Amino acid sequence: MRVVVIGGGAAGMAAASRIKRLQPKWDVTVFEASKYVSHAPCGIPFHVAGYVESLDDLCAYDVSFFREDRGIDVRTGSRVIEAGDGYVIVERRGEVEEHGWDYLLIATGTRPAALNADCHDLKGVMCVGSIEDSVYIKERAKKAKNVIIVGSGYLGIEMADAMLRLHKRVTVIEMGSHPLPEYDVEIGELLRRNMEKLVEFRGNEKVVEIDGGAGRVVTDRSTYRGDLIILCIGVVPNVELAAQLGVKIGDTGAIWTDEYLRTTVDGVYAAGDCAETTNIVTGRKDWIPLAAPANKMGYVAGSNISGLDLAYPGSLKSQLTSFLDLEIGKAGLSEKEALREGYDVVSATVISRARAKYIPDGKSITLKMVAERNGRVLGVQAAGVGVSKRIYGASALLYKGATVEDFFFTDFPFYPPKSPVWDPLVIAARNLFRKLGIS
Amino acid sequence: MRVVVIGGGAAGMAAASRIKRLQPKWDVTVFEASKYVSHAPCGIPFHVAGYVESLDDLCAYDVSFFREDRGIDVRTGSRVIEAGDGYVIVERRGEVEEHGWDYLLIATGTRPAALNADCHDLKGVMCVGSIEDSVYIKERAKKAKNVIIVGSGYLGIEMADAMLRLHKRVTVIEMGSHPLPEYDVEIGELLRRNMEKLVEFRGNEKVVEIDGGAGRVVTDRSTYRGDLIILCIGVVPNVELAAQLGVKIGDTGAIWTDEYLRTTVDGVYAAGDCAETTNIVTGRKDWIPLAAPANKMGYVAGSNISGLDLAYPGSLKSQLTSFLDLEIGKAGLSEKEALREGYDVVSATVISRARAKYIPDGKSITLKMVAERNGRVLGVQAAGVGVSKRIYGASALLYKGATVEDFFFTDFPFYPPKSPVWDPLVIAARNLFRKLGIS
Q: Do A415 and B51 touch (CB under 8 A)?
């Protein structure tokens, strides 16, 4: 059997590795447009900030590992320009070649969203998409004093953090009222207040014009000048080849897949950031372009292409980030997302010491839990210190469809220097008992 | 209604608070032998090490808070010397008084296990039980150069850590082959190797004689001399009053309770470290004297005494501790515990980077997962960095009876500086897929 994988990112390489493991005799060819495989764009802010020296380090493994150790025919610098029934046409250094397949995996990932044009066409404006972008940003940042970041999702936050570490003056422009606009205000405002200590944060402003050459960003309320403008306004899935093949594109704009990660066309699978999956909390189709789910989707698609029947249950959109010392995380839905999905919700927000009362440090965690009226928890968000373990615990319980009673009774470990004896997850659940009339 | 609570620790005060909230008109009297309430003996090592200045800080709240803010009749320095049907006899400053009850909660906690005699009778030997012990240990430690710690469960580890911070020479004597003998060797040996860098760790040695006056500990293999000898060989439940009342004592030696924390005598409840509960993993009665479960048991017993029907599901024995920089934690069963319980098990141990490969730091986590042949996970143990979030995640999944597939597919959050994209919990589960023939 001949398997073609379009895209050598996390999902593509996880799938290719899995197929060669289960079906060592099959031909598995990966076409990757860049010169990197198994690349981790999530690492870009850390490369820019200087934690990571070389772009090669942003790749989990290099090409020779996949070729020699895993027997995968990896072809970098190879862009698939056409995909049809049983074939792809690949362009490499100006040469064009046709390649046949029995199974095709589309793992084409995303590209940065831009305002009007393709980001790279906006002179003097940087986007954060492929890991190569990181080199340009880093180079440009050397000479810059004033950096303007448009958008404050994860990437915007992390780029602002990176630029502060490089001693730049940073302005962040956000359409919503607070950074991380998917979060509720209780968490978002905490982040906003933290950011405002070091960054010019401009909320509720809509960008109307960017002139990269002149270093000018015009919003509906003001004009900003900077020597480096970075767009972090999200990503869009690369679905053009999929559409060409006639596979269904879902309502989210990403490639529709069933639980085995099959598309609507026989023999064609999709995985990773270009593909839709199920939101485990809502049970509905969702588009969740995150690295950990992308890796697992690759594993699942590779298993199924190889003949197994492995269902992918979906993702919780679990997330962690930081702005300097402030950790922020979320699993499942915020209240605003839950309301948008039509749920009747109650919520509790607790501010809790991060460790046993008697261990002095003064640090705290703010945690918000959102539940349905029937007691099922829909999501947890938190900011402060000790966030990651609560998002791990919450992710696990949300995965299992847990109720507020489950959150209350789960036996989370107590260790005085790191946790209070009544964990904030437990306190939040207990507060919801009252609101839900449970006890 | 008159409610008497014997013991003003975590369980007793949580219950009393709960009862006054649900039944504000009831008389709730707490008899506590020491002068402290809501005391946290888990904090003793941190008091000895100097993080915590005052013993008062080791109490979540003080007496006046419970009296004035919560309306609880708290009587400190009051030891219950007899308990009978509808009454208790209390001794305070040499005076004896009878007090009637309609409901009785036994929350008498534990005392340190000793070798042959009551610990306080061994001259020059310290035990770690009530928070007042901490003052004596701290005082004695000032003059000591060589400290011998007998036993290396949590408390032994944490006391060894505290003594190192006070610049003492430390010898730890342990009957088992490695510290934390409930853990499997993969984790225990890692801890042993870490301890041996700074501590004289003597495993597989049984203490046969202690002479506190002479500062001598004799084992079956050697003799050790120290100016301070601390016994950390576990605790025993205080069940004497319960036995006097005729309530059933379970096979574990602690007070038998049903899921509503009722004892076998009408109107008598038990909660906290003196009481048995259910091990959520095995479904069997177990004795799990830990602070977080004790607080919840108090909450549940108080709810039920007040007329609600709240079942306590039990505990997972979830635990976290540290030895200097090494974090160690466990939820559910180790392999040796699982075998002892009669399970047919498979296990996987993974050594994983603690963060994304490209974030340099060289630190790692060793994580062991134990599962039944049917795929249900029985326990997770880990040591290294980033342990607590994995034990939180594992606790949540174990609470819900999760399988290796659940561990694999739970969407744990990825954040490069803090987690690798394939979480060690996920890798361990994937390794178990192979051993279980799942895929």
A: no
